[in-house]
Design brief:
heterodimer; A: alpha+beta; two-stranded antiparallel sheet; 6 strands; 20% strand; B: mainly alpha; 3 helices; 2 strands; 50% helix; flat; cilium (chain B); bacterial flagellum (chain B); FlgB (chain B)
């Protein structure tokens, strides 16, 4: 076990939560973006994005450690950012430049409430990781005092 | 007499290692607090068990029981706690409490090691 393992693990948690926060912010910012992606000659609204988290990374070192110590502890890993496939919101707004012939506009499938909840959850998890990081730091500093 | 390899020093060393591993386990649980399907882990000490397994050695070449410092703690998965809707069973409040406890425990150990060193220093200086 390395000296800074606990800190690296906490750092991976911090990075993952920061990404969750970024993605939630991006979703919030694009709550009204009707031109998210250009597909087959037509503009599609922005699709809500979600972060998929997985435990640990699958490097050789970790697999080996898992086999030897039956404990896989290498922090958290972002497996990817996926699109939310729920249908877009449709609003009647004939004056909108992206309205169809009937006057309906497709708006992103972003729910600000959901994003706020996600944001709060990410913030709390981030704080927990910061606390763990500070605890590890305090312990290592204390260990340096051995033999003083 | 061996100055640094007394059982006290050895035990403290072992406990420090265990505490550091515990810190890593807690960090890992907190990092994976939002990972679907993740099962919380905990570091358990089985020093008492080891002690009770002490056996009488009939031959010097036999392996000794009990005081093996490397295997007195291990990591195991927590399976008895309530699951979240996504299969994750990390309890943040519990982990934070364990974190605080472990921090104090570690600092106490360091203090004790320092006490030990100070005694040795005292002897080396001849009580001056």
């Amino acid at each position: 076990m390395g000296v800074f393992d606990a800190m690296n693990v906490s750092a991976s948690g911090l990075t993952a939560q920061r990404l969750r926060m970024d993605v939630a912010s991006s979703n919030m910012a694009n709550v009204d973006s009707t031109r998210g992606e250009f597909k087959n000659g037509v503009w599609e609204p922005y699709r809500r994005k979600m972060v998929v988290l997985g435990a640990g990374e699958s490097s050789f070192k970790n697999m080996f450690n898992k086999a030897v110590n039956n404990g896989k502890m290498s922090g958290v890993k972002v497996n990817g950012v996926v699109n939310d496939q729920t249908p877009f919101k449709t609003v009647y707004q004939p004056e909108h430049p992206d309205a169809n012939e009937e006057g309906f506009v497709q708006l992103p499938n972003v729910d600000p409430l959901k994003e706020m909840v996600d944001l709060m959850s990410a913030t709390r998890s981030y704080e927990a990781n910061v606390t763990a990081l500070n605890a590890a730091k305090g312990m290592y500093l204390k260990a340096l005092e051995i033999g003083r | 007499m061996d100055l640094f390899s007394s059982s006290v020093m050895k035990n403290l060393e072992m406990a420090l290692d265990g505490s550091a591993l515990k810190q890593k386990t807690i960090s890992n649980n907190l990092a994976n607090v939002d990972t679907p399907g993740y099962k919380a882990k905990e570091t358990v000490f089985n020093q008492e068990l080891k002690k009770s397994l002490q056996a009488h050695r009939t031959d010097q070449r036999h392996f000794s029981f009990g005081t093996e410092s490397s295997s007195s703690f291990h990591v195991k998965e927590k399976t008895n706690t309530v699951m979240n809707h996504n299969g994750n069973n990390v309890d943040v409040d519990k982990e934070m409490a364990e974190l605080a406890k472990n921090q104090l425990y570690y600092q106490t150990l360091v203090q004790r090691i320092n006490g030990k060193f100070n005694s040795i220093k005292m002897v080396v200086k001849g009580g001056r």
